[in-house]
Design brief:
seven-stranded parallel sheet; alpha/beta; Rossmann fold; 7 strands
Length: about 250
């Protein structure tokens, strides 16, 4: 049975690059109508030009509540519905730093994007989904949020918060036709990973039994399933995409 994405509307954060762009491309191939959020307007325009489906772009900071509220309101008005929310926007912050050397402002900035941003988009999308008695929300977490990566206190803590939020929201809306899940990849080969210190990347891949990064195709295939109609009885769960690292 093929995925049924006919007439579906999806909001995707971090859509201009990396994981967000990967899932944007795949959902576009299924004909999903897309609302793409990112801080990088120029890259969003490039992405929009490549898509063959209906799409709108929103260059906003998802950690700013009024910007998120206005964007979601506009999306609802223009598209008439919001069926899918995928929170892909994320930053690593400073890495390869022990906790006692971590800067408080860096911790706050990472939490703002990775956790607060995901909270705010879901806060304003859920009421729309409740009206429809249907929704699929996917928060992109990380294996770092389960196990904690040394030298990545800000990132690990922010993704742990995303996983906890997923558990709470999954329980809160379980009887409404909305499923809310997370996806916790091990390291996926993206431009963000390319910019990380090689020592940090090696630390992460050495923990993966397959001894490699995951690919963007592997990521987008799993994400697509999670937000599809096929995934109807899994809720509040964190899916692993870890090359064998997570076995629990």
């Amino acid at each position: 049975m093929a995925n049924n994405f006919e007439n579906k509307v999806a909001v995707i954060t971090g859509a201009a690059s990396g994981l967000g762009y990967a899932i944007t491309k795949q959902l576009a191939e299924f004909g999903v109508r897309l609302a793409l959020l990112d801080t990088n307007k120029q890259e969003l325009l490039k992405v929009k030009a490549l898509l063959k489906c209906e799409s709108e772009i929103y260059s906003i900071d998802i950690s700013k509540e009024q910007q998120v509220k206005a964007a979601i309101g506009d999306i609802k008005e223009k598209f008439g519905a919001i069926h899918i929310l995928i929170n892909s926007a994320g930053i690593t912050g400073k890495t390869n730093i022990k906790s006692h050397d971590a800067e408080t402002e860096n911790i706050k900035s990472v939490m703002d994007v990775n956790f607060i941003g995901s909270f705010l988009t879901s806060k304003y999308c859920i009421p729309v989904m409740l009206e429809q008695n249907y929704g699929r929300i996917l928060h992109i977490a990380s294996i770092a949020g389960k196990e904690g990566n040394a030298g990545m206190i800000a990132y690990s803590a922010s993704k742990a918060a995303v996983i906890a939020m997923t558990k709470v929201q999954g329980k809160e809306y379980a009887e409404t036709g909305i499923t809310i899940n997370a996806l916790a990849p091990a390291v996926i080969q993206t431009a963000m990973v390319d910019l990380m210190p090689q020592k940090q990347v090696k630390y992460m891949t050495d923990k993966i039994p397959m001894k490699r990064c995951g690919t963007l195709i592997e990521f987008s295939n799993m994400a697509t399933f999670i937000v599809s109609d096929k995934n109807s009885f899994t809720n509040g769960f964190t899916f692993d995409l870890s090359g064998g690292r997570a076995t629990y």
